[in-house]
Amino acid sequence: MGVYYLMAMMNPVNSLKNLIPNATIRGTGFSWNLVVDVLAQFQYAFMQHAYAAGIIVAVVAGIVGYFVVLRSLSFAGHALSHIGFAGATGAVALGVNPVYGLLVFTVGAAMGMGFMGKRIYGRDVVIGIVLAWTLGLGVLFLSLYTGYATEAYALLFGEILGISQADVVVTLIAGVVTLIAMAIMFRPLLFASVDGDVAEARGVPVRLLSILFMVVLAISVSEAVQVVGVLLIFALLVTPPAIAERLTAHPIKAIGLSVLLAILFTCIGLFISFYLPYPVSFFITTLAFITYLAVRLWAYVRQRFIKLTSEAV
Amino acid sequence: MQKKNTTDLTVSLQDAAVQLDSRIIWDNANVNVEQGEFVAVVGPNGSGKSTLLRVLLGLQYLSKGHVKVLGETPHRGNKLIGYVPQRRTFEPDMPIRGRDLVMMGLEGLRWGFALPGPGQHRQQKLVNEILQSVEALKYADRPIGQLSGGEQQRFILAQALIGKPRLLLLDEPLANLDLRNQIAIPQLVAKLASADSTTVLLVTHDINPLLPVVDKVIYIAKGNMVIGKPEQVITTETLSRLYEAPVEVVRDSNGRLFVVGLEQEVAHPHEH
Fold first, then answer.
1. B95 and A201 in contact by Cβ < 8 A?
2. How far is A252 from chain B (nearest CA, A)?
3. What residues contact residue A6 under an 8 Å CB cut-off, 6+ apart?
4. Which chain A positions have a beta carbon within 8 Å of B114's beta carbon?
5. Rounded distance, CA A229 to CA A238, Å?
C-alpha cells in the first residue's frame, strides 16, 4: 500500500489513473453492481482513508456551514482558507507538516475576525486586504521551498486520495472537538446569529460566541482543505447549507440536510473518481454546483406555478 | 410630588443625566413608572428615547443621578426585562421559522442543544400558547423573512413576552407597520401586558395610535424629560417649556394630536 501514498504524494493531479494504472485489468471497473463496486474500492487502503476523512469533514462542514451561511460569514470562511494557505506553505518551507501552519494561521486570523465583531463597518474590506497580503506571503514561502510544486497543488485543490491513516486520526480528533464545541454553543449561537441585539440585551455573550465560532470555523476550514483544497472550500462549507436553507426553515432539519448533502457530494465524488481519470475535487464541486442550480430552478418554477394557479383562481 | 414607596416602582430615575462623548443627551430627568403602567416614550429623532431604554437595560451608564429598575441597579441580562430593539425586518431569506424565534426567548440563553423529550414538549406547548395569544399560530411554521412587517412583529413580541417579563421595553415597534397594525399591535401589547400586570415602555415617534391604550407619556426634547398623563404632557404649555420654544398642540376632528411650530420632523409625526 505504501507505494500508493508515495505515488499520491508525487502526483500533481490527484486522480486515480496514476494510483491504479489499469483499473479494469485489476478487476475494479464499474460493474453497475454498486455493492461490488464499493467493496472493490474498499480493497484499497487509500480509498478507505479517503472515504473516512471525507465523511468526517462533510459532517463538520455541514454543521459549521449552517452557521456560516446564517451569519453571512461565507467571505470570512473563504478568506480563512486563503490565509491558511500562507501558513501551510510557510510550514512546508520550514519542513513542518503543513496542517500545523494551516491551523496556526487560520485560528490566528479567525480570532482577529471574531474580535472585530459582526457589525464593524467595512469589515470585508479589512479581511480582503489581509487576505491579499497573506496570499503574497504564501507565494514567497512557495518560492523559498525548493521541492516540487506538488505540495502547493495539493493545498490549493485538495489531496484526499493521499490521506494517510495518521491524517484520518487527526481529522477525526479535530472533527470531534469541533462537533462538541458546536453542541455546547448551539442554542446561544443560534440566538446570537438570528437576533444579535436581543440576544446581547438578554445576556448572551455575543462577542465571546463570535470569537469561539470563528475558531471552530478555522479548525473546520483547515480540515476541509485536505479534501477540497483552499480554492474549493466553498463547495463543502457553503453550498450544502445554502441549499438546505433554501429548502427548509426548520433549523434542525436544515442542519441535517446540509450534513447529508455534504456527505453525498463527497462520497459520490469519490466513487465516480475511482473510474474516471479526473480530480476528485472537480466531481465534488460540480455535484454541489449542479444541485444548487437545480434547487434554485425548482424554487423558481414552483413560484411561477403558484403565481399562475393563483391568477387562474 | 407625592411620596411613593420605591419598591412599587418599576422604573425610577432621579436627577438622571446621560452624556455621550461631550454631548449631553438629557439631563435632570425625574421619572417614576409604577408596576403595570403602559407608558409611551415620545420625542423628536435623536432626543434620546432609545438611550433611555439602553439605560434601563444596563447597556448605557448615567453620567449623573440615580436609576433603579425593578428595585435594582440596571444590569445586562436581566431576565425580568423583555426587550424589542429598533429594527427594520428580517431579511427575506432568513431561514428561521417564527416559532424558532419565539423559542429563543425561552431557551436561547441555555448552553447545549434541545433533546427531544417531555421537557422539550412542554417548551413547545408554551410557545404555542403565546403564539395563540398574539394570533400568529397559523403562520408560525413559515420562514419569518417572508412574512409582512405586522406578522413579524407578532413573533418579536411573543419572543419578548414568553419569559414572563415584569418590564417590557419596545423600541419603535410601530415603524414600518401598515395603519391597521399600528392600531392592532398596541392593543395586543396592552391586552397581554395588563393580563400579567407587566409594565410597558414603548418608544414611538407618533403618539396618536397609542392614545387609546397608554396610561402615561414620557416626552423627551432638547435634553429635557417629562412624564405624565397624555392630556397633561401633550399640551401647548408643557411642550413649549420642554422644547424651550413656542410650539402649539392642535387636535383634529378625530382627536389626533399634532405638534406644530417646529422643524419638519416634529411637525409631521409620520415623518421618518
1. no
2. 10
3. none
4. 187
5. 14
What pLDDT score does A22 carry? 46
User: Which residues pair with residue B167 across a beta bridge?
Assistant: B81, B199
In tens, the pLDDT along B196-222 reads 899 999 999 888 989 999 999 999 999
pLDDT of residue A35: 83
Instruction: Judge contact between A212 and A224, C-beta under 8 A.
Output: no
pLDDT score, position B97: 96
- Asked if A119 is an interface residue toward chain B (Cβ–Cβ < 8 A), one would say no
Residue B95 at interface with chain A, using a CB cutoff of 8 Å:
yes
Domains in chain A, CATH or no CATH each: 2-10+38-312 (1.10.3470.10)
Q: Does A108 touch chain B (CB under 8 A)?
A: no
Chain B environment of A306 (Cβ under 8 Å): none
All cell numbers assigned to B113: 442543544
CATH superfamily of B1-80+165-230: P-loop containing nucleotide triphosphate hydrolases (3.40.50.300)
Contacts of B181 (CB under 8 A, 6+ apart): B149, B150, B153, B174
Q: What is the CA radius of gyration of chain A?
A: 21
To the nearest 10 degrees (0 to 180), the angle between helices A98-116 and A74-94 is: 140
Where is average pLDDT lowest: A300-309, B77-86, B89-98, B134-143? A300-309
Q: What is the 3-state secondary structure (H, E, C) of B1-31?
A: CCCCCHHHEEEEEEEEEEEECCEEEEEEEEE
Percent helix, percent strand, percent coil in chain A, to nearest 5: 80, 0, 20
Cell of A228: 477540497
The tens place of each residue's pLDDT in chain A, 313 residues long, gives 333 333 444 444 444 555 554 444 344 577 778 888 888 888 899 999 999 999 999 999 999 999 999 998 888 888 898 899 899 889 888 888 888 898 999 999 998 888 876 555 567 888 888 888 988 998 888 888 766 667 777 778 888 888 888 889 988 999 999 999 999 999 999 999 998 888 988 889 999 999 999 999 999 998 888 777 877 787 889 999 999 999 999 999 999 999 999 999 999 999 999 888 888 889 999 999 999 999 999 988 988 887 777 665 5
Is residue A15 within 8 A of residue A273, CB to CB? The reply is yes
A262 touches A207 (CB < 8 A)? no
The values of phi and psi at residue B267, to 5°, are -65, -30
Put simply, the answer to whether B109 touches A186 (Cβ < 8 Å) is: no
Contact A106, A84 (CB under 8 A): yes
Task: Give the Cβ contact number of residue A165 at 10 Å.
Answer: 15
Report which residue type is found at B157. Answer: L
| DSSP-derived secondary structure letter, B114 | P
Residue B225: beta bridge partners?
A: B220
Delimit the domains of chain B by residue range.
Answer: 1-80+165-230, 94-164
Q: Is the dihedral of CA B22, B26, B28, B29 positive or negative?
A: negative
Residue B269 makes CB contacts below 8 A (sequence gap 6+) with B205, B206, B207, B208, B258, B259
Find residues 107-166 of chain B whose CB sits inside 8 Å of chain A: 107-114, 141-144, 159-160
CB B85 within 8 A of CB A197: yes
Nearest CA in chain A to B60: A201
